[in-house]
């Protein structure tokens, strides 16, 4: 049995042994810290109507001719602590991907949850609003192409946040990712947001972010999966064009990303969109590279629930009637362009339709259909796919 399966089995038994279903399992109070245990398990299934690429292969070098792919997507185990005083801490690990998640300590000034300093590994303010939202409440099975390709998620660093329920400014300085042989390169990020309307069932939000980071002389490789997170093959890919493998004299030195975001909630409807543009600054003669992407999505809670709002991101409510569950319909348009001048990374746009069912407090079922169009120079590849996810969380 693989190590992550053994660890996951023990975690599931602990969660199921709890007296009742909860969003978290309270463990103990140690040293004035109230410790709780959370977990998230996701299993995905993809069925491809492929064009020219074997997306059902387990790895890009093992083309098996299958038109489907199924795998455990996440197995996240998280310990959280509140106290003593205004201190909060979290230690998370993904047993499936063998990597550390949030692992940090936060100090809140006064009783203001939006005024704090944080040290450790955390999601950077230069990530998308979608990335900053809770993974268990993803609107679609695959996150947007800009979230997966252009944003900078978790890194080790220090962050200062100042604001209130309706606005905030965040600044961070970061280094490498905590897990070895993952993302690295130091940099800084800032994000600001403002919700001129913020009341129950009626939210209007605007935000912007900026990130600047070093590539540690390795350059950067930008690529996008065809709206299926576990697919190993990427048609849209800059390859070695922006890395040190291209040339020691013209690889990418620094990268900067500008992001813009907007959110509108009215009753059971939610509309959100984000845009990002990335600039790769290169040594020597070649011109700098610029790529961009965006998405626009809409969600409708068929059972009438509305969204909440916390720390500049929307929050998904529990079902009003647990036995009936919370039903959602969603539609998203997504686009990314990684071609600029001599760098032909390709372009991709997609439409995804989905239905989500949150049942009781711990289960979620998702079904998506995605239509993807990809171009790279004179080449094209246009797969369609049916995706399903089963999720258990506590």
TrEMBL record:
Record keywords, A-Z: Signal
One Pfam entry name: Porin_O_P
Coiled-coil segments: none
InterPro entries listed in its UniProt record: Porin_dom_sf (IPR023614), Porin_O/P (IPR010870)
Keyword Signal applies: yes
Signal peptide (UniProt feature, chain positions): 1-23
Protein name as annotated: Porin
Originating organism: Pseudoxanthomonas gei
Phylogenetic lineage: Bacteria, Pseudomonadati, Pseudomonadota, Gammaproteobacteria, Lysobacterales
């Amino acid at each position: 049995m693989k190590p992550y399966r053994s660890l996951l089995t023990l975690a599931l038994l602990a969660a199921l042994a709890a007296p009742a279903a909860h969003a978290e399992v309270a463990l103990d109070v140690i040293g004035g810290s109230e410790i709780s245990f959370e977990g998230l398990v996701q299993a995905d299934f993809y069925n491809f109507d492929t064009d020219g690429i074997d997306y059902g292969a387990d790895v890009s070098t093992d083309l098996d001719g299958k038109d489907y792919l199924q795998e455990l997507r996440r197995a996240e185990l998280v310990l959280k602590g509140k106290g003593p005083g205004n201190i909060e801490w979290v230690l998370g690990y993904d047993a499936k991907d063998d990597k550390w998640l949030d692992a940090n300590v936060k100090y809140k000034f006064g009783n203001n949850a939006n005024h704090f300093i944080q040290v450790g590994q955390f999601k950077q303010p230069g990530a998308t609003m979608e990335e900053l939202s809770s993974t268990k409440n993803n609107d679609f099975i695959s996150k947007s192409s800009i979230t997966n390709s252009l944003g900078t998620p978790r890194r080790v660093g220090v962050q200062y946040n100042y604001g209130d329920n309706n606005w905030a400014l965040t600044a961070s300085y970061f280094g490498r990712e905590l897990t070895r042989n993952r993302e690295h390169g130091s940099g800084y990020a800032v994000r600001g947001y403002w919700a001129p309307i913020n009341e129950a069932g009626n939210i209007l939000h605007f935000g912007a972010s900026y990130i600047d980071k070093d590539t540690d002389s390795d350059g950067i490789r930008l690529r996008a999966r065809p709206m299926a997170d576990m697919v190993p093959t990427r048609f849209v890919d800059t390859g070695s064009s922006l890395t040190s493998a291209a040339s020691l004299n013209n690889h990418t030195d620094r990268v900067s990303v500008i992001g813009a975001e907007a959110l509108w909630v009215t009753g059971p409807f939610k509309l959100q969109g984000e845009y990002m543009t990335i600039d790769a600054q290169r040594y020597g003669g070649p011109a700098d590279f610029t790529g961009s992407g965006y998405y626009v999505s809409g969600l409708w809670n068929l059972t009438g629930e509305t969204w909440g709002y916390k720390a500049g991101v929307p929050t998904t409510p529990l079902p009003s009637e647990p036995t009936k569950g919370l039903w959602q319909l969603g539609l998203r348009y997504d686009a990314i362009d990684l071609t600029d001048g001599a760098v032909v990374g390709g372009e991709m746009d997609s439409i995804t339709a989905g239905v989500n069912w949150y049942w009781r407090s711990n289960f979620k079922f998702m079904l998506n259909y995605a239509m993807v169009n990809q171009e790279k120079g004179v080449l094209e590849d246009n797969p369609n796919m049916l995706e399903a996810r089963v999720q258990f969380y506590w």
